[in-house]
Amino acid sequence: MLLPKFDYHAPTTIDEACSMLGHYGAKAKILAGGTDLLVHMKKRLLSPEQIISLNKIEGLKEAFSQNGTGLVLGPLSTAAYLADSRLIQERISVLAQGASRLGSPLIRNRATVGGNLITARPASDLAPPLLVLSAKVTLKGPRGERTLPLEDFFLGPGQTAVQADEILTKILIPNIQGISAGAYIKLGTRKALEISLVNTACFLELAQDGSIKLARVALGAVAPIPLLTPSVSKILAGVKPKNMDDPVFREAARAAAQESKPITDHRGSADYRRYMVEILTWRTLKNAYSQLMEKV
Amino acid sequence: MNSYSVINSRAPRLDAPDKATGRAFYTDDLYFPNMLYGALLQSPLAHARILNIDISRAKRLPGVKSVVTAKDVQIIRYGVSPARYDETILAVDKVRYVGDEVAAVAAVDWETAQEALGLIQVDYEELPAVFDPFEAMTEGAPQIHDAYTRNICAEVHQEFGNVEAAFEQCDLIHEHRFVNKRQDAAFLEPNNAVAVYDQLGYLTLYTSTQVPHYVQRTVSMVLKIPIGRVRVVKPYVGGGFGPKASASTLELAACLLSIKTHRPVKLHFNREQVFLHSRARHQFFHTFKTGVKKDGTLLALHNTCILEGGAYSSFGIATVYYAGSLLGGPYKLPHMKYDGFRVYTNRPACGAQRGHGGVAARAGFEQQLDIIAEKLGIDPVELRLKNIMEAGDTTCNELNMSSLGMKECIEAIRDHSDWKQKKGRLPKGKGIGLACGFFVSGAGYPIYRSDTYHATVVVKISEDGGTVQLQTGSAEIGQGSDTAFAMIAAEALGVRYEDVRVVSGDTDLSVDLGAYSSRQTLMTGYAAKDAAEDAKCQILEVLSEALNVPVEKISVRNGLVFFEGATPDYMPIRLAYIKEHRGWPYDDRPHDDHLTFKEAARLAYLKRGTIVGTGKYKPPKLGGSFRGAAVGTSPAYGCSAMIAEVSVDLETGEVTVEKVTDAHDCGLAINRTSVEGQMEGSVAMGLGEALFEEVKFNDQGQIINASLGEYKIPTALDVPPVQSIIIESNEPNGPYGAKEVGEGAIMPTIPAILNAVYDATGVRITELPITSERIWRALKEKK
Fold first, then answer.
1. Residue B2: what pLDDT?
2. Prediction ipTM score
3. May I ask the CATH architecture of the domain A7-53?
4. Which CATH number is B16-23+453-617's, of 3.20.20.80, 3.90.1170.50, 3.30.365.10, 3.90.1300.10?
5. Burial (Cβ within 10 Å: 0-12, 13-18, ≥19) of residue B734
6. Residues of B in contact with A279 (CB under 8 A)
7. Which site among A190, A200, A267, A275 would you substitute to test the B interface, given the most B Cβ atoms closer than 10 Å to its Cβ?
8. Of chain B residues 321-350, which have a CB less than 8 A from chain A?
9. A1 to chain B: closest CA residue
10. What's the whole-number average pLDDT of chain B?
11. Most distant pair of Cα atoms in chain A: their distance
12. Closest residue of A to B714, CA-based?
């Protein structure tokens, strides 16, 4: 398959990229890893006249710790980088787990976190971990810069809050105060190179007294967008589970299943997916809690 | 141990250096001066009448050199079986599936060819389509081919013995239905072809095929060019598995466009077009009714099968026969009845795929044997051993097991997997399962009716006597056949493996039916041995005369000549050889203690001219005289047994195949590494069909997962460790006792996994693939 014809731009600063995007507007597309964009172009689902690559801009491909306020992920950080980075593994392992399950090694070497969020697939491997980590995204456009919580970013399949002239420049992960742990589980047909039938991420943070201070669960492939489940947070907040087998985790998992809105498609049916949300959520919670118990 | 010097070892593959370094040339790597690029216009509708095709705009596009439709060729129907020639290069009057080829374009570059497709205007009158074979067989269903009422492409009714009477003698009769799914063979290299029609009217077609010979004949027949003027060349091929075992529209259109333009034309399928062209495994709807005595003795089987065939016949007639005949063994089954129907639908045509016609039948039947074993309280291993055939046995449908290490295979996997300790003793969620199978080692008859040799081989010795060139039209498609023939020729001549060069895959070289029905090791291998022996005989005759030693007292091994009794004075031969090669340091002194093959072969050249040995193979008359007896006959049968160990997540239904213990009887293993490679490849491929693979359609007849992202073949992480055990019998009809491993090895894979999943879960899955959801649902229903 051949790519349609287009002009290629490789600006070296964000500002330059922004002004190009401002100039071309909807005729342009931003190129990060290209694992979605180029495939769509080959299939003629997209035919942008202008391609603006961010790959020549320095400093977008890594994560770094921002003096006390949290972690900053460059939007061009690849899935392979996120999966293998010590910083990510140590500070926010749930994201490393999600990244390690994305596609195959070849795809992980190209696919970026920014691209993964912008394409806004309901089955994204990176969105649920970032949602449970309370990530925020920074968007830059001709009218300036704005930052919004990731849960306000996704609007529908392939649709986000990004305007046609805005670029996703940063992903911010706020500092975590207490003892915390997360877990990610992906259910697919085969063990790699897979689109999730269901995926779940969870993040638990303990208060001083050993009770759960914060619990967040996010689900993939069971709603039009990667879905945070507030009811789970509500059920678990302030609870002090006896151990990982405490029935409260199953109760929370059931709530997650109720919040999910799966559909039936050729990959799986809605009732199976809904039940899998319960099972996988339960397992992620138990997994995260057992990690916490080891840390205490 | 045996006394072979070359075969039965682990020779490095001849194609390994090219492939490992990325230097192997595939058809798509070929470029010719002035080459044009072709493209095919395919039907967007599943069933429609073509009212009009307007190619005028496409023709006017600058850079377009030719646009052809069915009007530009004389309509000569072709296909696989002459009894069902139902295809044309381009659609005439009607399209029958989404993807049916309507027009072809050649242009100066690929972009222009693609653009031209968009300028062709086709007016269709959409017709009602039918996708379900059961619906297609009902009265009043849309008729896809005029000649075939109720869309029945082929139907088979066979009975051996008396099944009804035998059922009356049975203590237990079990019946169940089993369904697989339409497959894609998912070979790595999509189909490609480059046709070059030269100024003298000779046509050369370079193509990614398994069968240069059949492609040559089809091109010759359809385009009306004498066979001697058509040459088909197969460069390296990235897998075939069956769908590349017949001529395709791609190949014929490339030829047609090259003839029209007098320029080389390259055409290729993208991955979606590979799915649309299909010709892979059918969907089979089997019902098995098996009767046994309470001691486990098998008495009778009634097998009924409906095959969803798609829009054209392809291999389908053979497929529908195989789906019955390949249950004749490897168990003693005195009474067998088979009713099979292959049905046309408005979907891409199905054809042959590894284990042709027998894979779904084997999967369902081996599952049924396990059900019966459980009902009778007999261990599945014991039930099989009780009924197993041995060498010399003939099946009820007259297949002769000239060698059969089936019992040895079962015993080997039982012992190596620790079956006795595990069966019935594993925790819930863990399971172990067994299955067997057998397969032809080459079809007993060519696809067209003929007395042709199935393989001829030429062995030519270089003038210096040092290098052997083996020429064969057979198809190396990644299975290792070139390597096997080099080993066989080296063994037969008595030279070193590294001194044999193989040239293959070209119809100019020899007649060979190609890589299908697991035939080449036995058939081409036999001809290779025959040719090498012929060449050797000529050389030894000359040597015998020169030294005055009878031929019977001379032998050759590892490139050295040995004499029984006293060694004659060969110095005059050596001195002449040295004289001829003065100044050639590496040829100065051939060997200190022995006359070499090289010296003898040089002498033979000096006396007789170029030494050329020829060999040939044709199977003996095989099989019974009943209708369809030809399908399933073979000079030999390979057989195999496999034990799979699985774990099943009882909450999600996910299956993990943890370990496989596999045994295959390939007669004598020519290259042990290649045999193991085929066994492991079969496990991977069978595992995919068992657990993941299914070509899916929407209600318009469009494939919704026509990519390797959405059609799930196993990844490295899905394939378990495989312990491959080679069982060697001595096949009297094979070269050095060798027979097949390529397809037979896949037979037990699916049922072994099915039986292991039952052992782990207590639920029988009778519809493939065994997805996590299917297991989850079955477990839920059981509760």
1. 64
2. 0.95
3. 2-Layer Sandwich (3.30)
4. 3.30.365.10
5. buried
6. 651-652
7. A190
8. none
9. B270
10. 97
11. 62
12. A190
**A292 CA: distance to closest CA in chain B (Å):** 25
Q: Given this model, what pLDDT does residue B587 score?
A: 56
Cα–Cα distance for residue pair B426/B25, rounded to 1 Å = 50
Whether the predicted pLDDT of B620 surpasses 90:
yes
DSSP three-state, residue B78: strand
pLDDT band at B591 (very low <50, low <70, confident <90, very high): confident
pLDDT reported for residue A139: 97
- Among 3.30.450.90, 3.40.50.720, 3.10.450.50, 3.30.465.10, what is the CATH number of A63-174? 3.30.465.10
If one looks up domain A180-295 in CATH, what number appears? 3.30.390.50
pLDDT greater than 80 at residue B584: no
CB B208 within 8 A of CB B244: yes
Same CATH fold assignment for domains B16-23+453-617 and B283-445+624-782? yes
User: B592: pLDDT confidence band, cut at 50, 70 and 90?
Assistant: confident
* In chain A, where the domains are located: 7-53, 63-174, 180-295
Tokens at B127, concatenated: 């017709």
Residue B1 has pLDDT above 70, yes or no: no
> What is the per-residue pLDDT for A151?
97
3-state secondary structure of B599: helix
Using the Cβ of B654 and the Cβ atoms of chain A, whether some distance falls under 8 Å is answered with yes
Same fold yes or no, A7-53 and A63-174: no
What are the C-alpha distances in Å from B379 to residues A210, B373, B419?
54, 6, 10
pLDDT digits (tens, 9 = 90+) for A43-82: 999 999 999 999 999 999 999 998 878 999 999 999 999 9
Write out pLDDT tens, residues B537-546: 999 999 999 9
Tell me the residue ranges of DSSP E strands in B329-385: 335-344
What are B270's two structure tokens?
Answer: 């993208």
> What whole-number distance in Å separates Cα of residue B209 and Cα of residue B601?
36
According to DSSP, the β-strands at B468-472 and B500-504 are: parallel
* Per-window interface: A 206-265 vs B, CB < 8 A: none
pLDDT digits (tens, 9 = 90+) for B336-353: 999 999 999 999 999 999
DSSP for B481-522, written as a single string: HHHHHHHHHHHHHT--GGGEEEEESBTTT--B--SSTT-HHH
Return the pLDDT at B420. Answer: 97
Cβ-based contacts of A268 with chain B (< 8 Å): 773
Any idea where the domains of chain B sit in the sequence?
16-23+453-617, 31-127+188-239+244-277, 283-445+624-782
Stretches in chain A below the pLDDT threshold 50: none
Cβ contact B110–A279 (<8 Å): no
- Any idea of the CA torsion for B99, B102, B107, B110, to the nearest 10 degrees? -10
CA A102 to chain B, closest CA, distance in angstroms equals: 13
Q: Is the pLDDT of residue B589 over 80?
A: no
Q: Which CATH number is B31-127+188-239+244-277's, of 2.40.30.30, 3.90.1170.50, 3.30.930.10, 3.40.640.10? A: 3.90.1170.50
Could you tell me the CA-to-CA distances from B771 to A198, A269, B169, B480 in Å, in that order?
Answer: 14, 12, 39, 33
Task: Write the secondary structure of B744-778 as one string of H (helix), E (strand) and C (coil).
Answer: HHHCCHHHHHHHHHHHHHCCCCCECCCCHHHHHHH
CATH code: domain B283-445+624-782 is 3.30.365.10
- Number of A to B CB contacts under 8 A, please give it: 47
Are A99 and A77 in contact by the 8 Å Cβ rule? The answer is no
Pick from A2, A194, A269: which is nearest to B773 by CB? Answer: A269
Q: What does the pLDDT read at residue B582?
A: 80
Residues of B in contact with A189 (CB under 8 A): 691-692, 712, 771-772
